[in-house]
Amino acid sequence: MKHLFKRYGFLGSIRLASALLITKIFYKPARLIRLPFYIRGRSAVKWGKHFTTGVGVRIDALGTKSHQIVIGNRVQLNDYVHIGAVDQVVIGNDVLIASKVFITDHNHGCYSNENTESSPSENPIDRELYSAPVIIEDKVWIGESVSIMPGVTIGQGAIIGAGSVVTKDVDKNTIVVGAPARIVKKYCFKTK
User: Fold this and answer.
1) Which residue, 51, 157, 78, 80, is CA-closest to 69?
2) How many Å apart are CA 155 and CA 173, to the nearest integer?
3) In the chain, which ranges are continuous DSSP H helix?
4) b/e per residue, 171-182, with b = 16+ CB within 10 A?
5) Which neighbouring-strand residues pair with 171?
6) Which tens digits make up the pLDDT trace of 149-179?
7) Taking a C-beta distance cutoff of 8 angstroms, is the pair 133, 178 a contact?
8) Separation between Cα atoms, residue 24 and residue 33, nearest integer Å
9) pLDDT tens digits, 112-150
């Protein structure tokens, strides 16, 4: 207990203890859900063992699938991560996600095909939702303030640099940075 007081202070230790208690009662099998924690469509969200969140995490399952948002074992979402799914977002095991990350599988309107693009004269809220699943494989590290857009698959062991906007698939064992994100390094198992 002294360790907690030293690390978090008196009030911080009380907040942590209450978050642990609430986690064990309402958010099994999670490790720690820090409050406030916002979840919409709880029945469509599934998480594995040892799931951990920072404060202000927001999870929105907006469609009709039974497992729209699937989060693996030992996943950590830090402060103010927002995940929104109309179709599906899947996060593998041992994934670390820094603060202020936005992951979405949908957009208000379609902007990638000239024949079916949404009109700018429509109100954005009235535009048809277009979606494509997002898959984040095992052992991925996503840096601070990253945005991951619809239809993206991030390969196992990839690292997404802070502030990146991921609009295309990311190969496994690569580091990507930028807006839009691009490969800057690929790990070679032969030379290490």
Assistant:
1) 51
2) 7
3) 2-26
4) ebbbbbbeeebe
5) none
6) 999 999 999 999 999 999 999 999 999 999 9
7) no
8) 9
9) 766 677 778 888 888 888 889 999 999 999 999 999 999
Q: Find where tokens 């990507």 sit.
A: 176
- 100 DSSP assignment: T
Q: What is the reported pTM? A: 0.89
Structure tokens at 5: 């007081």
- Biggest alpha carbon–alpha carbon distance for the chain: 64
Instruction: Provide DSSP, 31-65.
Output: SEEPSSEEEESGGGEEE-TT-EE-TTEEEEE-SS-
Residues in the chain, how many? 192
Burial class from Cβ neighbours inside 10 Å (0-12, 13-18, 19+) for residue 26 reads exposed
Residues with catalytic function: 108
List of domains in the chain: 1-29 (no CATH), 31-186 (2.160.10.10)
